[in-house]
């Protein structure tokens, strides 16, 4: 006789039908539902349908399966998924037959469905390298399995997505007779893409962990080949998927803000004349930035944020940012102002990141020191070669978010923005007074509105 | 702005000129790690001067030609791939139909960034017969078209000459020059003809200089040239400084002097031993 084990978590929609389906088979003497502490009425429905319900002590499919094995009273056990309804009529008999006829010790059920992405892209390539003997299994991750309790008891179950492949590998390593049987067509929901990353990680970890436990001489070569494949695949994916990523970068002063932060500070704190003198005397942008930061020495965070709070923003910046994000754009601010201020603006408009100069703050007050972030400085790969430039920061952002330059929209207003606007896929000169920026940019916006960006996005 | 070239198209007609174009393409591919696409278009025109296909008038079985072209391209690929030392690769394709239309379609479909075309020394007849003139290629594909002649081959673009023909800043050419200049550590020479009224300064020259300096750190010089025809004056200047590349637009300002040259749209590329890039748009 057979024991059917059904691990379940919040399966109220299907559990009753699955239990009834099992109980209709004459070979089945026991149906165990191992509940993973469901929040719905899975337990009641399973009991009503005639199953023996065991509440799992610890959540996780592997533990549930182990609990099922420990409580099964028959030597032949079959694991079925709780979320499949209906099963093909012959499912149980097809899974049990090779065991009953003593043709196999472990049976893996396969079914007609679209190829699983993790199966094809992760599990099969790794099995091919580490376990060529299992390379012919069409669905190595299938959860519909049958086997002998005595063999299952010798297995240590993974408690994540690696559980099914782990069992297959253990059976293979114990030299159990393994058979794959086709049980027909099953309507199986594809996992959401968010779950695929976790599943890929856990499945690959299970395969590699088992391979390492049983490492022979060939493991080193296998590791090298996997690393090389992984490197090439990573590069290829980066190059090719970058085509689909898009980014919009805004300058802050006189672009998002209707004014310049430091000018507003000068007016508020009374150093307008000093600021004008500095701008006249100092032409090196790094030294100028550091000397301007000294003018803010002793100012509290609250005072500085109060200044930016009182500068108006362009009216439609928030809806335009929302629309751009809707279209898949990553939104950033690249400014030679201070991160304290750009981060405030980022939060206000719903952008994703900001790159700016770091104003040193200790105990809530500006020390007068400004630290130039490394992303502004030229690297050997710098596209423009300028020692200190916003384009270097854009290049850094493009690499971080895997965006190609041609998919970048940049909006700027001043001479400082010529380079970054010129290197962007679409450069916009925004209400600029700089004649050359207007010529460098692919488009010019003359009104104080970002709505025009949406036409090109 | 494009920060690299990814795909270079080399139209192949199985003549000596192909070698010059492929050699130049390999130089670029090795520096920029881009792919080279060798493309041959099988077509049979009714008359040499007309681009009307023979198959419209009488049965023409082009299968044999396709097979022959495929084999030749395979041979070329095997011959030249050993010269590639970057990440780029050589792709080959044989197309059938009107040469210009097929090449234009190919450039759009596979996102070409540049076309390289070999020019023969005695090229007048060839240019008239050929449906793929530099001017037409640049116009139809909207791609930069680099024309090279056997004697114009050099290993680097160290000196790039960028002539100005009107009061507009040539942004497309500047961006391409900046891209190439960055890889080849070039110097850009921005040149302009002195105006007839002998004005002391030419604003566009200084503006162009400033734009280049805004976008890149590669060295740039501006020079006012004496002369009446921009094409010949640029050519003479480029020869004098031993330039490696000239970048022009597909405009009449760059036609060689003489009525015949203007009628036949004879760009300075045809008289230049120095490679010339022609861009359609400014």
Structure in a nutshell:
The complex is a heterodimer of chains A (457) and B (282). In chain A, 44% of the residues lie in helices and 19% in strands. Chain A has 457 residues and is α/β, with parallel strands linked by helices.
What is the count of helical runs of chain B?
A: 9
Rg over alpha carbons of chain A: 31 Å
Sheet bearing the most strands of chain B, described?
10 strands, mixed
User: What oligomeric arrangement do these chains adopt?
Assistant: heterodimer
Structural class of chain A: alpha/beta
What does this 3D model show about the protein?
The complex is a heterodimer of chains A (457) and B (282). Chain A has 20 helices and 14 strands. Chain A has helices spanning 15-23, 42-49, 61-71, 91-100, 117-130, 149-152, 163-173, 193-213, 219-241, 252-256, 261-269, 272-281, 285-294, 301-309, 317-326, 339-349, 390-401, 418-423, 435-440, 453-456; strands at 2-8, 28-35, 52-55, 76-79, 106-112, 145-148, 178-185, 246-250, 329-338, 353-362, 365-371, 408-412, 426-430, 443-445. In chain A, α5 (117-130) runs parallel beside α8 and α7 (163-173) packs parallel to α8 (193-213). The radius of gyration of chain A is 31 Å and the shape is elongated. Chain B has helices spanning 16-32, 63-81, 99-109, 124-129, 134-141, 171-184, 203-215, 230-240, 259-263, and strands spanning 7-11, 35-42, 90-96, 114-118, 145-148, 159-164, 187-193, 220-225, 245-249, 276-279. In chain B, 37% of the residues lie in helices and 20% in strands. By secondary structure, chain B is of the alpha/beta class. Chain A binds chain B through residues 383-386, 405-406, 415, 418-419, 422-425, 427, 436, 439-440, and chain B through 1-3, 169, 171, 175, 182, 207, 210-211, 214-218.
């Amino acid at each position: 006789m057979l024991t059917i084990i059904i691990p379940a978590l919040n399966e109220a929609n299907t559990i009753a039908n699955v239990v009834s389906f099992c109980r209709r088979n004459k070979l089945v003497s026991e149906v165990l539902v191992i509940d993973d502490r469901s929040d719905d009425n899975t337990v009641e429905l399973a009991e009503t349908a005639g199953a023996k319900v065991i509440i799992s002590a610890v959540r996780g499919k592997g533990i549930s399966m182990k609990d099922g094995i420990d409580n099964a009273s028959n030597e032949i056990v079959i694991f079925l998924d709780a979320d499949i309804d209906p099963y093909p009529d012959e499912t149980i008999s097809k899974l049990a037959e090779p065991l009953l006829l003593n043709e196999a010790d472990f049976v893996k059920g396969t079914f007609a469905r679209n190829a699983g992405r993790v199966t094809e892209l992760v599990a099969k390539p790794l099995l091919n390298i580490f376990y060529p003997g299992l390379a012919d299994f069409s669905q190595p991750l299938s959860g519909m399995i049958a086997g002998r309790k005595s063999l299952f008891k010798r297995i240590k179950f993974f408690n994540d997505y690696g559980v099914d492949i782990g069992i297959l590998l253990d059976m293979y390593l114990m030299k159990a007779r393994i058979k794959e049987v086709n049980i027909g067509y099953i309507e199986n929901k594809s996992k959401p893409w968010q779950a695929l990353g976790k599943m890929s990680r856990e499945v690959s970890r299970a395969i590699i962990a088992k391979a390492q436990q049983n490492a022979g001489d060939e493991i080193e070569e296998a590791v090298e080949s996997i690393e090389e494949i992984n490197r090439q695949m990573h590069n290829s994916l980066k190059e090719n998927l970058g085509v689909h990523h898009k980014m919009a970068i805004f300058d802050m002063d006189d672009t998002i803000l209707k004014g310049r932060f430091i000018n507003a500070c000068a007016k508020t704190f009374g150093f307008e004349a000093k600021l004008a003198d500095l701008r006249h005397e100092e032409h090196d942008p790094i030294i100028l930035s550091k000397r301007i930061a000294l003018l803010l020495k002793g100012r509290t965070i609250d005072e500085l944020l109060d200044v930016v709070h009182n500068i108006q923003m362009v009216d439609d910046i928030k809806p335009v940012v929302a629309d751009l994000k809707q279209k898949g754009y990553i939104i950033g601010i690249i400014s030679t102002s201070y991160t304290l201020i750009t981060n405030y603006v980022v939060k206000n408009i719903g952008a994703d990141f900001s790159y700016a100069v770091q104003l040193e703050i200790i105990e809530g007050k500006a020390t007068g020191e400004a630290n130039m972030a490394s992303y502004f400085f030229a690297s050997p790969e710098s596209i423009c070669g300028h020692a200190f430039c916003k384009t270097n920061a854009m290049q850094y952002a493009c690499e971080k978010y895997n965006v190609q330059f041609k998919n970048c929209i940049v909006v700027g207003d001043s001479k400082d923005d010529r380079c970054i606007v010129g290197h962007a896929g679409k450069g916009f000169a925004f209400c600029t007074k700089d004649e050359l920026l207007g010529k460098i940019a692919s488009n010019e916006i003359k009104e104080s509105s970002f709505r025009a960006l949406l036409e090109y996005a | 702005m494009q920060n690299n070239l990814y795909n270079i198209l080399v139209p192949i007609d199985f003549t000596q000129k192909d070698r010059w174009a492929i050699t130049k393409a390999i130089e670029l591919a090795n520096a920029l790690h881009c792919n080279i696409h060798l493309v041959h278009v099988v077509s049979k025109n009714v008359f040499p001067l007309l681009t009307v296909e023979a198959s419209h008038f009488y049965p023409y079985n082009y299968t044999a030609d396709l097979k022959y072209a495929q084999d030749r391209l395979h041979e070329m690929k095997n011959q030249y791939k050993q010269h590639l030392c970057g990440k780029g690769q050589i792709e080959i394709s044989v197309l059938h139909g009107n040469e210009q239309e097929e090449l234009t379609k190919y450039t759009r479909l596979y996102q070409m960034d540049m076309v390289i075309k070999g020019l023969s020394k005695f090229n007048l007849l060839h240019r008239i017969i050929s449906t793929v003139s530099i001017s037409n290629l640049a116009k139809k594909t909207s791609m930069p078209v680099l024309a090279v002649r056997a004697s114009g081959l050099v290993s680097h673009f160290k000196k790039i000459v960028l002539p100005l023909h009107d009061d507009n800043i040539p942004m497309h050419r500047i961006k391409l020059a900046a891209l190439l200049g960055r890889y080849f550590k070039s110097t850009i020479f921005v040149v302009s003809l002195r105006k007839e009224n002998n004005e002391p300064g030419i604003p566009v020259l200084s503006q162009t200089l400033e734009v280049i300096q805004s976008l890149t750190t590669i060295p740039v010089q501006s020079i006012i040239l004496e002369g009446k025809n921009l094409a010949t004056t640029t050519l003479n200047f480029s020869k004098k400084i031993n330039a490696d590349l000239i970048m022009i637009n597909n405009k009449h300002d760059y036609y060689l002097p003489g009525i015949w040259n203007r009628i036949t749209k004879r760009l300075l590329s045809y008289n230049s031993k120095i490679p010339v890039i022609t861009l359609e748009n400014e």
